[in-house]
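Final report, section 2: Outcomes. Of the targets proposed, MinD/ParA family protein is the one most frequently requested by collaborating groups, and we therefore present its record in full.
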Amino acid sequence: MSDQANRLRQEVMKRIQPEDKLRRTRVIAVTSGKGGVGKSNVSLNFALSLAALDKKVMIFDLDVGMANIDVLMGVTPKETLVSMLEKNLTLDAIIQKGVNGLQYISGGNGIGKVFSLDGEQLNHFFNEFNVLQGMVDYIILDTGAGLTQEGMRFLQAADDVFLVINPEPPSITDAYGVLKALHARDPKLPVKLIINRAISDQEAGRTAHNFQQASEKFLNKTIDILGWIPDDVMVRKAVMAQSPYLLEYPNAKASEAITQLVHTYLDLPSTYKLGVKGFLTKMLFHK
Ligand SMILES: Nc1ncnc2c1ncn2[C@@H]1O[C@H](COP(=O)(O)OP(=O)(O)OP(=O)(O)O)[C@@H](O)[C@H]1O
Ligand SMILES: [Mg+2]
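The predicted structure is given below as tokens.
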């Protein structure tokens, strides 16, 4: 085939291929057992680090806790997922621009509403959300801590769950509780561990090893260790400055660690399931 014919064929293929064939949208849910372990910082800086590798990323703030994604970026969301439902808005109208052009959606107060939608509203939510299929490579959900029914439904529907722990025993015990509950719902759900705020390689290694062993011994479940992020004073400084540490202090130890973590993630076998539609179906209809 001549070059020109080949190009033409590629153009045509592009046009007739559904979007979802072009881009496999994966959903990553970030969670923890205990609150305050660093989920939002991990979600945001992981997202920015992926975006720096030319991946298209959308971040969802589904946490109703204190330190929200918007606060960490120093921006204020105008519309939220909840206001989309209340005002019948399109998804486009609630996508906000954060730092570095990072797209994000704020859940808003009363996000649990999405689980009791019916009729027109359910259709609207499904169709609008489904627009994301093929539009982005990764959807990152910053979920709340602990074992809420709502939280569990987001987690079990994701392609990947990132479980963030600190080396302290309460964080580990609570995270194990989350893992156990997730395992009971879906033993095949891929869970990946991130150790945040470790003070040394040894401490991180020990924590990861203990958690992995407990998981294998009691649940017969293997979990991947994605990596660890050091306890770094620059993280706190960045939080105070309302700017993500990866951007504010790109050479900080935490920034190097999150970059490394993204590479580790991209090197692991892909866990793509059924795209956005699959995620929505599971989240909305599998209790
Ligand atoms: N690697 C780190 N090094 C030092 N401090 C950190 C690190 N990660 C997080 N922190 C500190 O912990 C605080 C809480 O982090 P973050 O808001 O990301 O936690 P969270 O798990 O999302 O909390 P919540 O459960 O309230 O949503 C930050 O404001 C920061 O001061
Ligand atoms: Mg948070």
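The longest helix spans residues 201-219.
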